[in-house]
């Protein structure tokens, strides 16, 4: 009779190398078999997992074992993280006193001193004690572990779970290394894992269940976050991805978004959690899109929230000068010490400011601002000035090159006040030439009665601005495009200028003069033309319009101070 050779289900060598690739068992959570029937069943298990439940700190206990809200979860998580660090420090000090050369593996305990990393101990079966002097008995190992930590990590209780090493190893590099390190301990039957009582106990059981069944029964955000943290601890990427997806599907709030962005860096940087971080960033950027409406709220955001809001291309602000002023105010509020403020500008905040789109007057202030490092300020200002000196084609090329970068410098935001380019002359007369470009879609949004303002520019110590309008012509017979020049200062100030308005026009694409004259400005007054081009709005916006060149309307004004 022919005998078929059946592979050993518990032989770790049957787990193929391909399973550990990004598309294999460690990286995939789709089309995987459901072994839920085998969870905690001795008939389908080759190991026994001892989960040692450790007490929480008194501060954590006082809030209760259950977190009823995201805020409670965040507070308890922070306390547990601090407590864990204290425990590790105490244990390390004890080890240094006992033996300064104690290795990382003590009495069979695979122990890595990384904050919140998994700690595991492999033990032999109690029945094996004495049979092999190289094997570590359950009681012996447990006593050694307890004596090392009895004053600090008292075991409240022990949960016994029957596990299958191939199933766990296929899902987790942590368990794979634990069961296949080639040492005698990797062949032992008993494995001990210490966890905190408050949240890790339930989360670990949920994680183990997931590794068998590929699903979770929990749905609350706090429970999912607990499982996510434990999954990161034991390197179960498929569960991290699963939790991340469930959390993204829950209603996002400002509180939850900030919590997701405040997760430990090891969790936040994982590929499985990146979509959750992206969703949190997008939520905050959309919520605070118009910063002027939420100035007080945004001023109270933590650094992660500030980065989410001010890295957005769709941020609605008056100008990049306003971004600079706001971030300076935020930094001085949250980092009162100058050294800390300089550090955060150099490493985090500086990359949020698009210096090339700031005005030259504000760039001068950057050079003398004490909040910036003396070496950084000249570099960012010089880069901004070189960008301003480039041709429009080169500027667009530079902006497109960083289209996929997380932080952009050259791409223009949706400023409420449109940027202008100014060329100034001091002699023989004070004069400036101002260029204003408007995209076709920006002009289209003006219909039927809108207006858009330019950023301020200066001549002879006075501030001026453009305003473009869509309104009815003087006879109220049709809509048309109008352009006006206003002076910022209010009050009894008078200022006389000669002016000329021009626009680029097809087919030559040269600037063609439209109107010229002179005007004496007083505070709050403006001069301009209701119908700059002398045509109806429909003709101005038509596909064959003479005034849109590659989808952009190019306007120019020359201003000269009158003697």
TrEMBL record:
Pathway info: Protein modification; protein ubiquitination
SUPFAM superfamilies linked to this entry: POZ domain (SSF54695), TRAF domain-like (SSF49599)
Record-level GO cellular component terms: nucleus
Domain spans labelled BTB: 150-220
Record has Transmembrane helix as a keyword: no
Gene Ontology biological process terms, A to Z: protein ubiquitination; response to red light
Highest taxon listed in the record's lineage: Eukaryota
InterPro entries per UniProt: BACK, BTB/POZ_dom, POB1-like, SKP1/BTB/POZ_sf
Function of the protein: May act as a substrate-specific adapter of an E3 ubiquitin-protein ligase complex (CUL3-RBX1-BTB) which mediates the ubiquitination and subsequent proteasomal degradation of target proteins.
Name this polypeptide is given: BTB domain-containing protein
Organism: Gossypium armourianum
